[in-house]
Amino acid sequence: MVRRSHRVRDVAEQAGLSTATVDRVLHARPGVSARAVRAVETALAELDRQASAVHLSHRSLVVDVVLDAPGRFRAAVHDAAREAVGMLGAATVRARFHDVEGATPRALAHLVDGLGSGGRVSHGILLKAPDDEHVGAAVRRALDRGLPTVTLVTDIASCGRVAYAGLDNAAAGATAAYLLGHLAGRRPGVVLATLSHRTFRGERERLAAFEARFAVAAPGLAVVLVGDLRGEDEATERAVTNALEHGAPVAGVYSMGGGNTGVVRALAAAGAEGVPFVAHDLDADNLTLLRTGAITAVLHHDLRTDLRSALTQLLRAHRLVPGAPTTVRSAPQVVTPWNIPPRLGGRAAADAGAEGAADGPRPATGGS
Q1: What is the three-class DSSP state of 317?
Q2: Region Disordered: start and end of each range (predicted)?
Q3: Alpha-carbon distances, residue 149 vs 73, 79, 93, 116, 243 (angstroms)
Q4: Torsion angle, CA of 218/222/225/226, rounded to 10 degrees?
């Protein structure tokens, strides 16, 4: 195994062997022990790691983060990205944010086409955007000019992105079906499924998996879809109110997107508060609704982990760290009022609610 990336003397010092022994190992000559071979392999791996760290320490990378999402989710991504950047080790990475909400696909494509131009250096893109051919074409053009893209939280089909980082959306939809099948399966009525917009592939994956699994888990309950409202509380409240006024009683709710404060207000106004309610993401609104019992469970994925993974894939695409860019899907974590992560005040919330634990969390009657 001839390795010319490090001097024989350096490998020998790292492995604690003589230069002659190392030379024989590197050139696969006879007369060396298995222990010596392992020591040389370990030394080479450590020297590679150190060389990578030194190389990274001399690089300053700019990553453009493009987010088509409501403000509460954008704020969570901003915080997670800043923390992830600080945990990348020796690399100097700066995140540059481009926040939009409800932009047309052509406008998003125009934004992506402008990244890295006009004297503004860019080394890659993290992208949360609709699954649209115009956006996909812009991602391919970005790669052609040396800007790799990692899709974040929701994927884009056939766009030439180097990796996806975020929730396993199909697993999340199936998990929601499992939970509501047990919680709402014996109740009369329908299950209300709300989503932000079907143009987002992640929500389509959640919905498809939910409907498929729920048909098995609770074959007697129909799923009524309310969606394409961009997660806006007021619009979602009006749509849910209309569904409640003109449909069967609600046995449960699965919210794939946002607008959950609006959903809770509509349920309360119709006297349907307290039904099993599964939502996504531990943002500030959902934390409040979860703690008060308006939401039964939240399907959570740690954005900090997702952002670290996404940035690592961009570093891999530039060959600044070992390995090829790889899609990493986060498994959904089921969070109830009693296992909220401590960094989000979970322990304090549990302690504060200990006296009323026997009665369980009380449903909310409204939202902020």
Answers
A1: helix
A2: 345-368
A3: 20, 20, 15, 12, 39
A4: -100
Q: Rounding to the nearest 10 degrees, give the CA dihedral for residues 206, 212, 217, 222.
A: 90
Mean pLDDT within 200-225 = 93
Q: Kindly state the percentage of the chain with pLDDT values over 70.
A: 88
Averaged pLDDT, 117-140: 92
pTM (whole model) above 0.85: no
Residues in the chain: 368
CB of 217 closer than 8 Å to CB of 239 = no
Picking from 169, 220, 228, the residue whose alpha carbon sits closest to that of residue 193 is 228
- Decide: 186 and 217 in contact? Cβ < 8 Å: no
Q: How confident is the model at residue 135 (pLDDT cuts 50, 70, 90)?
A: very high
Kindly report, residue by residue over 48-89, the tens digit of the pLDDT: 765 555 455 556 788 999 999 888 888 889 888 888 887 776
- For the chain, domains (ranges, CATH) are 8-56 (no CATH), 60-167+304-330 (3.40.50.2300), 169-301+333-356 (3.40.50.2300)
Query: What's the CA angle centered on 272, arms 268 and 276, to 5 degrees?
Result: 110
